[in-house]
Amino acid sequence: MTAGWTVRRLAATDDGLPGRGPGVDCHELDSGAPGPLVVVLGGVHGDEPEGTLAAGRLCRRELPLRAGRLRVVPVANEEAFRAASRTTPADGVNLARVFPGDPAGSPTRRLAALLSARVLADADLLIDLHTAGRHYDMPLFVGCLADDSAAGVASRAAAEAFGLDTVWLHPTYSAGRSLSVPVARGQPAIYAEGPGGESVDLGTVGSYVRGVLGALTGLGLLAAPAAPASGPVRYVAGGGDLDRDVLTFTAGGLFAAAVAAGDAVLADQLLGTVQDVYGVVRQELRAPHGGRVMFLRRSAHVRPGDVAASLAEHT
Prior knowledge:
The protein has about 325 residues and is α+β, with helices and mostly antiparallel strands. It has 2 domains: about 5-235, 3-Layer(aba) Sandwich (Aminopeptidase), CATH 3.40.630; about 245-315, CATH 2.40.50.100. Helices cover about 20% and strands about 30% of the residues. A hairpin with a 2-residue loop joins strand 1 (about 5-15) and strand 2 (about 15-30). It is globular and about 65 Å long.
């Protein structure tokens, strides 16, 4: 174990027997001086390896914290991670939709309750590391709450300290997300997203590690700048709820994208087509308004009702 870090096994209960339910390995680094507690989560979705790798790499670093504590859970959903699945195989539930969970519920809801009570309950800042997963693509960005509340102001400051060149500003966080747990207590929370796919993007991993160090520096936990200054920041805005704020396919077939994640698009611009095996176009997917493509289908085979894309508005 790297000097200074401690690790605890946290486990929910199953039928009243401790240690048999879902659990996580929780790593903590304590400066010994008063200051904020920053929590980093990776692996909320099991098919998003970059966040897990970035969180795990942090636990191997000898970080000279001068104040506060850093708490890291590299794999928040171990069963989903082992299956490389977005949802928990035991119950088919998406962990990122059921916070703060239910200690008497299904395995995923018990896991959310464990994380809420034992990992997130005293966080002064949460950083949740995600990517687009197997079937979708996203540009590299950090997202934050951007209302006028204390949590919103602090979330935006943390997102800017994270140091990526795109910041997605949200008027609110959707219910059930890990981010909703600290925000309900008036504390800030941010998340990062990046490209998806079947292989690991080490560039994204490195950006996440540098981003966390930047956020720690911004809060005064690290004394020196952790990363070089970033270039101009691009701000986009919108709900960002990938269950609701999305375009969906109306036809099944093979999707051929006409744009890439991160592209700026105009109203009515062609985003892609759904074709049958003869190349006959069954659907033209067009932008309902101008903005930037923040979520885009990567895998070819699609069915009616599948999520196709999500757009954010320029600020």
